[in-house]
Amino acid sequence: MNRITPDYPFNYIIMRKKYIAPIALLFVLFGYGQGNYYPASGNVGIGTLTPNFNLEVAGTFSASQIFVNGSAMQSSPWSLSGANTFYNAGRVGIGTNNPGFALDVAGTVNATNLLINGSPLPGSPWSLNGANAFYNAGRVGIGTNNPGFALDVAGTVNATNLLINGSPLPGSPWSLNGANTFYSAGRVGIGTNNPGFTLDVAGTVNATNLLINGSPLPGSPWSLNGSNTFYSAGRVGIGTNNPGFDLDVDGTINATNLLINGNPLPSSPWTMSGSNLVYNSGNIGIGITNIPAGYELAVAGEIITEGVTVKLQSSGWPDYVFTRNYELPTLKKVERFIKENGHLENIPSAKEIGENGLDLGTINSKLLQKIEELTLYAIQQQKEIEELKSCNKDILKNFSTLHLQLEQRINELEKKE
Hints:
Elements: H1 8-34, E1 44-46, E2 55-57, E3 67-68, E4 71-72, E5 79-81, E6 84-86, E7 92-94, E8 103-105, E9 115-116, E10 119-120, E11 127-129, E12 132-134, E13 140-142, E14 151-153, E15 163-164, E16 167-168, E17 175-177, E18 180-182, E19 188-190, E20 199-201, E21 211-212, E22 215-216, E23 223-225, E24 228-230, E25 236-238, E26 247-249, E27 259-260, E28 263-264, E29 271-273, E30 276-278, E31 284-286, E32 297-299, H2 331-341, H3 350-356, H4 360-416
Parallel strand pairs: 1-2, 7-8, 13-14, 19-20, 25-26, 31-32
Antiparallel strand pairs: 3-4, 5-6, 9-10, 11-12, 15-16, 17-18, 21-22, 23-24, 27-28, 29-30
């Protein structure tokens, strides 16, 4: 037994502390061994004094089983082949739960090397000038691999400012009224810069509904039979609203082949010579299929024109009327012929015109002959008139002389009385 000394109380206290700590540790271990321990708050760290998660282990974790939300944690989808780790069951997302590509990284990639199909990733085509990045080797496409313009964005552009040739982009001409968008300043063109209608679409329209004046667009009258399109409800007009034939085209037809009753359309008998249209293979009939013999052009109908030129092939123009040896018929002979025949000599009668038609060249020649004859008659009559005037003048002169002589005789006789 220890001897009690003046420092006994102090030694006693030291002895108590020496045994209290191991005993307390035993009690703690005994308490953990009797059941589960649930910390009320804070994170638990194993191998670290500053855990950032509910349970953070700085080291290797060995357990017979791990649960996440009460369910056994799935095994890793990654496989090992030597020092290589690979995954071929689907897409890999880093920083995203919904990868859209074989490897989809939502963030910055920092790697010593990047390969595409085993080849190093090409360097960026962009150049830097201070804080400006530029590209002048071709076109830039965003959302498209085939840009059609210097900058082609297949998607929405969100920018604080857009400039065209250094000037701000004009505001949209469209207006909003609730959920409706409208434009009332002119025509709208889609796929065209020169719309010819209120809405002009140069391309295919895909819509759930099309209305004309508030009513649904009528269905197409055309029907399909394999690769054939046909219409059997009436006539078809192209370029016209009032077709007069099964197919009435108001314009030019450009086709690889045209068939009539299954046979190719005969080639045109007409020939072009500059701006002239020539046909020299036979006679021409307009409105008539049976051309009378001896005629180059037969028209069954009326002709309207601003001028007609007739050139006689023979020397039959009646200038001979004015020759010295031409025997001008007397007016009595002309009168007698008219009384007997009812028309001028050498001029066809109405019956002959009805039966044989009218030759413009010949009739104009005959009419000119009559005009020239009338001119000669007029000249003769004028000469006779001049002669009559001269005779009358002489008669009047003689009458005046006789009248003066008569007055003198009368005056002399009166004086004698």
